[in-house]
UniProtKB/TrEMBL annotation:
Domain of life (superkingdom): Bacteria
Stored InterPro entries: Lcl_C (IPR011460)
Organism: Candidatus Nitrotoga fabula
Domain Lcl C-terminal: 32-151
Source organism phylogeny: Bacteria, Pseudomonadati, Pseudomonadota, Betaproteobacteria, Nitrosomonadales
Record protein name field: Lcl C-terminal domain-containing protein
Span list, region Disordered: 1-29
Amino acid sequence: MQNENDNSQPQEGTSAEQPTARFIISEDGAEVTDNTTGLIWRRCPEGMTASIHGCIGVPGLYNLEEALQQAAKVARSTGKPWRLPKVDELQSIVDPTRRDPSIDTDIFPGTPGAPFFTSSPDGALIWYVSFYIGKVFSEYSAIPNHVRLVRSS
């Protein structure tokens, strides 16, 4: 005898499909699309090379002027509008359940638990996101930090 509530068909308003993953890694492993924000990230910190298996090399350190030059260089070489992220954009990929680094390293391998530049000024200072604890701070732009580039989809 079949249970009256047993229904192998999805009920109206429900979906039998799996929810879309937040982060999608490109086939070549170089980019990550964030389905929540619509932003596309370089998977590896600048100074590293992406592959389908992760990141190779050592993350570079840049002062703000060098970081902006790096973004322009990558944009020219790829033909894509890469830029430094705004503070809220960079903070959106922080994973508060993790520490040192406070980011999903399966999605963003090679990320050190260290500060990353943003393009958001704070008076004479610049905002950055620390991936050691996932917090936002400001400091002088001449102090070297890491860089992760972003673009709109």
